[in-house]
């Protein structure tokens, strides 16, 4: 009988025969790197002796049977297929040591139940899927994990403090998600962590202790901003890769002399100033230097010729002056000093002669002759007066052609608007046309501040929500402005936002089409109907709803730098799983003058600084509205019924408004304190929404500590 079957790396096709289940002694099956297709080979489900299953790099599709996660497998490799499934919660019941689900189409949240596998999982790979939601705090239970990779998904929220419990982790990858806020200091203090990848998120602060552990620091495209402190990188003596590209960093490049093992350095696409950092002269292991697209000045140092391992040198699009050093390293493969203020003759070296005119162009006072071996030894003259004039003319011509192309695009867009076409947002399938929308049966759902909302049932049985905007409120908004704004708003995608799918405008008619949310509004849930009075929700329900709203609002603020402007309980809808989804976001920017409310409840959400008719909403006024919404959740009372109280009296008022939760008084007080902080009179004193999320995370973790499920010393946490 067969016990081990390896058929990897062939060109096998077709499906897997169910007869494989007739091999009772089979404990290892590897059919990876072939061209098998069809559904998951369900015959392996129930093969109790199987401990190793590798079907990666094939074309399997469909769902994965949840039972596979409860078998006695030690290794499960199903990455690089086309599986599509919401990860089941029983994934935590696994005995698997190596769980690799990367490069598929798994969706939904990371299951909180994963913590049940705390004694087993050592490598977890979720990267390149479609996972959404927050990183569950239960991840801290995976104390055996060495690798946790959830990069390139759609995860949102902040990094949970419970990550600090992963004492054995060496690699953490959350790059390419929608995460924001602060990278917790306790995560940076993980003793075994050597690879931390957080690029392409929206973090704004990194804990100072990261220099103690990492050898690869990738913090790209985070819009960190601000001056890079000069002593920040002085102790990173194990660092091999440093990438801080595209972060709006300013000031001088800090001292890098302590990075004795550095091989790769990307500081491009920032706003660094000052001269070329002399500290680099001691970094003899450097292979890549990229300072392009900054504002660096002064000469390019001649000591660069001594970096004999240099492969890539990009200094283009700065303001360097002086001459080019006579670089002659045979290893140099990439070289670009274009778009600077360099002068003098190009040095005649074998290395520099390998690079074409594009590596030296747009330096008006650079001259000389080079031989470009890649262009069949053709001779290229640089920056003679005639060549410079011709090149400038070519640049102008390209720019003029680009402007003409943009004008054509704008005219086409205006023609679309004038003709009244239905415009679908980027990435949306055109599931219906304007005629179908106009023929749909319509049911009035409500009248709001900027328009009237209808439930529309199309002839293909698709149900959508249509908001007809009030023409008088948007009278000052041109068609171009409206279209550009809708293109931005239509790009917002988050589990806690009702997605805008399409929009329409013609003359004075403007429509927005959203997903229909079946469970009504948060206002109805809190206050009940006219005939029934609802009780205040349990504090855990309040926390869950408030966290959902905070996630969506933080995404609007942090990821897109936009403002909701009209947050209230009637603009929070409940999705199919009763998740809270924010609606009517980012519309007040189109109203002129700013939206003013006659309804006393709606007025109560307005921050004091925006109650003047000429004051626009800001992210801090959104935070104020969130604070009022949280008090509404906790008390069950309309905002117009909220008294003006000092913080101490507010806590007592909330207590008196509730009839339960006596046993959870500490958690209730914490939530009230969050609401108080958000609704402070001074906008400068209010927290940001990602700070609010951090407070919620600490409330949940405090509850787990009280129940004995988390170790507070291991997490290094404390309420702030």
Automatic annotation (TrEMBL):
GO terms for cellular component: membrane. It comes from Cephalotus follicularis. Belongs to the RLP family. The keyword Kinase applies. Residues 439-705 form the Protein kinase domain. The keyword Membrane applies. InterPro entries: Kinase-like_dom_sf (IPR011009), Leu-rich_rpt (IPR001611), LRR_dom_sf (IPR032675), PRK1-6/SRF4-like (IPR046959), Prot_kinase_dom (IPR000719), Ser-Thr/Tyr_kinase_cat_dom (IPR001245). It is a single-pass membrane protein. Its main location: membrane. Keywords: Glycoprotein, Kinase, Leucine-rich repeat, Membrane, Repeat, Transferase, Transmembrane, Transmembrane helix. One of its GO terms (molecular function) is ATP binding. This is Pkinase domain-containing protein/LRR_1 domain-containing protein/LRR_8 domain-containing protein. SUPFAM superfamilies: L domain-like, Protein kinase-like (PK-like). It is found in: Membrane.
């Amino acid at each position: 009988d067969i016990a081990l079957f390896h058929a990897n790396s062939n060109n096998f096709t077709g499906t897997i025969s169910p007869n494989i289940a007739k091999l009772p002694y089979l404990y290892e099956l590897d059919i990876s790197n072939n061209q098998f297709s069809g559904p998951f080979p369900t015959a392996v489900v129930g093969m109790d002796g199987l401990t190793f299953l590798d079907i990666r790099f094939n074309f399997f599709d469909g769902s994965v049977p949840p039972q596979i996660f409860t078998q006695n497998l030690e290794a499960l490799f199903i990455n690089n297929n086309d599986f599509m499934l919401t990860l089941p919660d029983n994934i935590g019941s696994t005995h698997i040591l190596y769980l690799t689900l990367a490069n598929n189409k798994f969706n939904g949240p990371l299951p909180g139940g994963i913590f049940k596998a705390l004694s087993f999982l050592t490598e977890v790979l979720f990267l390149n899927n479609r996972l959404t939601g927050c990183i569950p705090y239960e991840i801290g239970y995976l104390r055996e994990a060495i690798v946790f990779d959830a990069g390139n998904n759609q995860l949102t929220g902040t990094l949970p403090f419970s990550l600090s419990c992963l004492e054995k982790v060496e690699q953490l990858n959350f790059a390419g998600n929608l995460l924001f806020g602060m990278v917790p200091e306790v995560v940076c203090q993980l003793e075994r962590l050597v690879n931390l990848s957080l690029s392409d998120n929206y973090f704004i602060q990194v804990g100072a202790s990261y220099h103690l552990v990492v050898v690869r620091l990738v913090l790209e495209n985070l819009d960190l901003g601000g001056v890079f402190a000069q002593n920040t990188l002085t102790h990173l003596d194990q660092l091999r890769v440093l990438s801080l590209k595209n972060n709006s960093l300013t000031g001088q490049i800090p001292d890098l002399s302590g990075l004795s093992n550095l091989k790769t350095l990307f500081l491009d696409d920032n706003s660094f100033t000052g001269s070329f950092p002399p500290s680099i002269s001691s970094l003899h292991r450097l292979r890549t230097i990229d300072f392009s697209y900054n504002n660096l000045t002064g000469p390019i140092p001649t000591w660069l010729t001594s970096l004999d391992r240099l492969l890539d040198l990009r200094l283009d699009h700065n303001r360097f002056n002086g001459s080019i050093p006579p670089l002659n390293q045979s290893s140099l493969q990439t070289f670009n000093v274009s778009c600077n203020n360099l002068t003098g003759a190009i040095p005649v070296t074998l290395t520099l002669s390998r690079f074409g005119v594009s590596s030296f162009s747009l330096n008006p006072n650079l001259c000389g002759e080079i031989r470009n071996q890649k262009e069949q030894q053709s001779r290229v003259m640089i920056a003679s007066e005639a060549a410079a004039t011709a090149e400038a003319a070519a640049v102008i011509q390209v720019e003029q052609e680009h402007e003409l192309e943009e004008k054509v695009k704008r005219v086409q867009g205006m023609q679309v608007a004038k003709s009244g076409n239905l415009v679908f947002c980027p990435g949306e399938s055109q599931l219906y046309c304007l005629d179908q929308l106009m023929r749909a049966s319509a049911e009035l759902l409500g009248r709001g501040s900027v328009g009237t909302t209808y439930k529309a049932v199309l002839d293909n049985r698709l149900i959508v929500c249509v908001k007809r905007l009030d023409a008088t409120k948007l009278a000052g908004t041109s068609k171009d402005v409206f279209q550009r704004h809708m293109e931005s708003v239509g790009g917002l995608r988050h589990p806690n936002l009702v997605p805008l799918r399409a929009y329409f405008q013609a003359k004075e008619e403007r429509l927005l089409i959203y997903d229909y949310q079946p469970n009504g509004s948060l206002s109805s849930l809190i206050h009940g109907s006219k005939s029934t009075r609802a009780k205040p929700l349990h504090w855990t329900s309040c926390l869950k709803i408030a966290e959902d709203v905070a996630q969506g609002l933080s995404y609007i603020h942090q990821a897109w730098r936009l403002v909701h402007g009209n947050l209230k309980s009637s603009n929070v809808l409940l999705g199919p799983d009763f998740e809270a989804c924010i609606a009517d976001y980012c519309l007040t920017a189109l109203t002129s003058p700013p939206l003013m409310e006659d309804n006393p409840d709606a007025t109560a959400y307005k921050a004091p600084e925006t109650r003047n008719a000429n004051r626009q909403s800001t992210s801090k006024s959104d935070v104020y509205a969130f604070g009022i919404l949280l008090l509404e959740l906790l008390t069950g009372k309309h905002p117009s019924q909220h008294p003006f109280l000092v913080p101490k009296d507010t806590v007592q008022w909330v207590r008196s408004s509730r009839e339960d939760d006596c046993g959870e008084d500490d958690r209730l007080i914490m939530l009230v304190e969050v609401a108080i902080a958000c609704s402070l009179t001074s906008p400068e004193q209010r927290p940001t929404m990602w700070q609010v999320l951090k407070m919620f995370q600490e409330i949940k973790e405090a509850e787990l500590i009280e129940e004995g499920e988390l170790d507070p010393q291991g997490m290094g946490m404390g309420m702030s």
